[in-house]
Design the sequence.
């Protein structure tokens, strides 16, 4: 499986993302610059964390108009897995590929530590290697990870099982402790915690590895069955 | 040419932790009569005269980029810029 790691000016988790899929899983991965006009040769799209365009105006707001985002939209429409982590999640909401928006943490602090996450839906292409309801330990590092959406959007997310991860504890003010959501079709996931920073015991834990394994597993199965 | 002053503020229904922190500080300083503080953004755009209607242009800019209408409201004022 071949992944594109999109690099925006200000991305800083791109190396971790690349490391997770290339070195830990042994899949193909390439860095793709933000003005690329063609993502057709990739099977999965990864939007890394960081501070794209300096987070000017709002986090993720300027990145949504990067040249590559038209291609990310096309990939999402084609049903390819699109994963946005941290700033990548913020970009996906600003681009309208996921509902809601990320606000400043309720305590105004940039928070950087490992937190408990509950797998709310393991029936997705991103979480099939987890148990339903499993609690995993994943690092967070964000100042604007307070997920907000209106009541109608929340009810819709809930009814469609689009809430994939919730925090075990409320520390940033996110609505109903939401840490990660998918789109209706189920092929676009945005989450604030960093699974790519939890892929080996050497760096403190590997609970994030199953997320990347899930993507690859589903991709392999769908490509075998279609062969 | 026109100068457009755009004010982007968090919608009333959205908690503004920055505003709350500033209000807390003002209260500590003794200004108890301050009942609420909301923090927003102020942008100045200079727009050249064209065939486009300025109002529809500014609304478009606000909706597409300058404000996220999920959480933010915006308003603006248009001033005529007198060339020197």
Sequence:
């Amino acid at each position: 499986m071949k992944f594109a790691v999109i690099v925006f000016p200000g991305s800083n988790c791109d190396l971790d993302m690349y490391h997770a899929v290339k070195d830990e899983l042994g899949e193909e991965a390439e860095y793709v610059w933000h003005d690329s006009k063609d993502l057709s040769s990739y099977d999965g799209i990864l939007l890394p964390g960081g501070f794209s365009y300096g987070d000017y105006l709002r986090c993720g707001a300027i990145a949504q108009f990067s040249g590559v985002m038209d291609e990310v939209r096309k990939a999402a429409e084609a049903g390819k897995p699109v994963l946005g982590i941290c700033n990548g999640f913020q970009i996906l909401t600003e681009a309208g590929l996921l509902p809601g928006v990320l606000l400043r943490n309720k305590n105004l602090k940039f928070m950087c530590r490992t937190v408990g996450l509950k797998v709310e839906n393991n029936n997705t292409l991103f979480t099939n290697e987890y148990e339903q309801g499993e609690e995993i330990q994943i690092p967070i590092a964000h100042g604007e990870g307070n997920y907000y959406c209106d009541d109608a959007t929340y009810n819709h997310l809930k009814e469609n099982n689009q809430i994939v991860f919730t925090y075990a504890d409320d520390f940033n003010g996110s609505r109903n402790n939401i840490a990660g959501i998918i789109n209706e079709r189920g092929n676009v996931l945005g989450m604030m915690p960093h699974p790519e920073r939890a892929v080996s015991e050497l760096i403190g834990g590997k609970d994030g590895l199953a997320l990347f394994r899930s993507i690859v597993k589903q991709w392999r199965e769908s490509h075998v069955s279609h062969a | 040419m026109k100068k457009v002053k755009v004010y982007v503020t968090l919608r009333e229904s959205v908690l503004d932790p920055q505003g709350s922190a500033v209000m807390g500080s003002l209260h500590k300083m003794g200004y108890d009569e301050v009942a609420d503080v909301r923090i927003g953004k102020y942008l100045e755009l200079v727009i050249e005269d064209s065939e486009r209607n300025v109002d529809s242009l500014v609304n478009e800019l606000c909706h597409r980029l300058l404000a996220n209408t999920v959480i933010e409201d915006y308003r603006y004022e248009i001033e005529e810029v007198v060339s020197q």
